[in-house]
Design goal:
Helices cover about 75% and strands about 0% of the residues. With about 280 residues, it is mainly α. The model has no long low-confidence stretch (mean pLDDT about 90). Pfam families: Rgg_C.
Length: about 280
C-alpha cells in the first residue's frame, strides 16, 4: 500500500525528534548505509525509508522498532493494523459473525485502498474469491513497494490465492532483502505464518517440492531465533503435514500432534484449535 504523504511526513518528523534528542547528526548514519541527503529527505517527508534501512538507523540510536511504532501510533492511530489483528483473532476462533461484520463495514468504503484490501481479505476467509478478485489481489500484492505490518497481514489472509510464481518471488525477496523484518517479533510471526499458509496450500495441491523449499528457507531464517517457540512450532506442524501427505505418515502425524500439544502448553488455545482442525481434516482425508 502506498503510504499517504501525511503518514510519510509524520514518520520523518518523529525520527527527526528522536535523532535530535539523542544528539545524532545526519552524517552519523553513513556508517549504516544512509547518506545525509536520503535521511534528510525522509525527515522532511519527501521520501520513505525501506524497513531494513529504518531498522538499522533506529538500532544505531538504540531504539527498538516497537518503540518507534509506539511514538508513531500515539499521533496516528493505525486503524487498519487494529482491524487486521481483529481479523486474525476471528479467523483463529472461526468467529464468522465478527468476520462478516468487518467485511460489511469495509465494503461500505472499499473505494479506499486500505478498506478494499480488508474487504478482499475477509471475503476470502468467509467465501473465497472470484476469479476477478483473485486477479485484483495479485495486482495489489505485486505493486507493494514498502511492506508494513498491514500489508503482511493482508498477504497472510490471501496468500493461497497468489500464483506460484508470485508467491516464490515474494518469499525470495524477503530472504534476500528484508531479513531485518525478522528481528521484530510480530513481523517475524507474520512472515512465518505467511510461509506456512502458503506451504499448506501447496501440500494440498500435491506440490510437495515447493512446500519443502518454502519450509527449508523459513527454517534457515529462524536459526538466530531458536527461542521463538511460536514460530518454530508453526513451521514444525507444517513440516509434519508435508511428511504425512508424502507417505511418511507415522513421523508426520507425530510431529503434528506434538505441535498441537505445544500450542496447548504455551497457553494458546485458539492456535491449538486452529491447527487441530487442519490435522483432523488432513488425517480424515
Amino acid at each position: 500500500m502506498v503510504k499517504s504523504n501525511r503518514t510519510i511526513s509524520l514518520m520523518g518528523e518523529i525520527f527527526y525528534d528522536l535523532r535530535t534528542q539523542r544528539n545524532f547528526r545526519l552524517t552519523d548514519f553513513e556508517k549504516v548505509g544512509l547518506s545525509k541527503s536520503s535521511l534528510s529527505d525522509f525527515e522532511s517527508g519527501k521520501s520513505i525509508l525501506r524497513f531494513d534501512k529504518l531498522d538499522a538507523a533506529l538500532e544505531l540510536m538504540h531504539i527498538e522498532v516497537s518503540e518507534f511504532e509506539y511514538f508513531f501510533n500515539n499521533y496516528h492511530s493505525d486503524y487498519f493494523v487494529e482491524i487486521c489483528d481483529e481479523i486474525e483473532d476471528a479467523n483463529y476462533m472461526q468467529d464468522t459473525v465478527k468476520l462478516k461484520a468487518i467485511n460489511s463495514e469495509a465494503g461500505k468504503y472499499d473505494n479506499e485502498q486500505g478498506n478494499r484490501m480488508i474487504f478482499l481479505a475477509t471475503q476470502n476467509l468467509l467465501y473465497g474469491l472470484t476469479e476477478r478478485e483473485e486477479v485484483e489481489v495479485t495486482d495489489l500484492m505485486f505493486n507493494i513497494e514498502v511492506w508494513s505490518y498491514f500489508e503482511l497481514s493482508i498477504l497472510s489472509f490471501v496468500v493461497e490465492h497468489l500464483n506460484t510464481r508470485l508467491t516464490l518471488s515474494l518469499m525470495k525477496d524477503f530472504w534476500k532483502e528484508n531479513l531485518h523484518y525478522l528481528k521484530v517479533k510480530k513481523y517475524r510471526e507474520k512472515i512465518v505464518q505467511i510461509v506456512c499458509r502458503a506451504a499448506v496450500k501447496y501440500i494440498s495441491e500435491n506440490k510437495y517440492s515447493i512446500a519443502q523449499k518454502l519450509l527449508e528457507d523459513v527454517n534457515i531464517a529462524l536459526i538466530p531465533y531458536k527461542k521463538d517457540l511460536f514460530c518454530r512450532n508453526m513451521s514444525r506442524f507444517t513440516l509434519g503435514l508435508l511428511l504425512y501427505k508424502s507417505d511418511k505418515t507415522v513421523d508426520g502425524k507425530a510431529k503434528m500432534e506434538s505441535s498441537i500439544r505445544l500450542f496447548d502448553e504455551l497457553g494458546l488455545p485458539e492456535m491449538k484449535a486452529y491447527y487441530q482442525k487442519i490435522f483432523d481434516e488432513s488425517v480424515k482425508n
